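Progress narrative, work stream C.
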Amino acid sequence: KPLTLQIIADDCHGSPYHLHRTFKRITMITPITYLENIRINYAKKQLTSSNQSIEIIGKMSGFPNPSHFSTTFKRHTGLSPNQFRKTIKKN
């Protein structure tokens, strides 16, 4: 299910702007970066502990398509999901 700043703000009964500003002031990262970190950490666990396809792991992690998953994963880890899986299995 997609999760946006607007949905989170609505659940907190506030504005997206206020939520973003307050969250960043307290945590030093944006809510979207925080959510990406959680999704990438989940994907890393799945890549190391299962043989499911990268596409399925991306969907399970909350990414709308494999391309977005691969791009975000590489931005966070420096490796593509496939490279990450091969490196972990090698070690």
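Work stream C, second folded protein:
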Amino acid sequence: MSESTIKIPKDRLYKVESILVSQPEPQNEKSPYYDLAQKYNIKVDFRPFIEVKPVNVKDFRKQKVDILEHTAIIFTSRNAIDHFFSICSELKIEMPAEMKYFCISEQTANYLQKYIVIRKRKIFTGFRTAEDLIEILKKHKGEKYLFPCSSIRKNDIPEFLEKNDYKYTEAVMYETVAADLSDLADVNYDIIAFFSPSGINSLFVNFPDFKQNKTRIAAFGPTTAKAVEDAGLFLDIQAPMPNAPSMTGALEAYIKQANKQ
């Protein structure tokens, strides 16, 4: 990784001793965050800034969505899968064997086996991003798609379906809300890492008078970066970048420069 390609203002280079990652703690002991903490002798804590809550059946019914009218379902996350099958269970709906599933990644597709026997089903899998999945959807325009999603979701897939006259229904099956972070009121971190605009929103829901001062802000993805700037915060660390495709890579590039001061 070439440090020269990371442009960091000199007046924002402060030594890093602690990082707060606004996501759940990794279940994998080999997480690169643990490697980062050990390599640079820094504290890395994890705390989700958002919570996912199910939409109850009564509210779901108000959307007037007939699940079995559809021939294919688009899943972009494990949350979507969990809440979709939870609604189906409450409504006593069983998925027909001919139902097709379009999943954003292999990991998401594999998660389906929690609810169905995947080797007997038609499953189409993207590599990792919405753009990958859209390329697959282009080959299957004849389906009638159901898109289970959150009350807050990205626009890329619905916009593609709408623009290209696909038959689809969007069904809000869970809500993304700000988590209660009141116990962090008197806790300070050198860096806070964000992964969605919802995380930035949660910061200000919990701490409306938040002042950034020397706190460095890291953001993953262009929409998160824009949310940081729209909130009037200074974006110190951004990922992915050509020389830092992951959040941990971007954090390490910053730490290398800041901690040698």
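The chain has two domains: 3-49+182-258, 52-177. No further action is required on this item.
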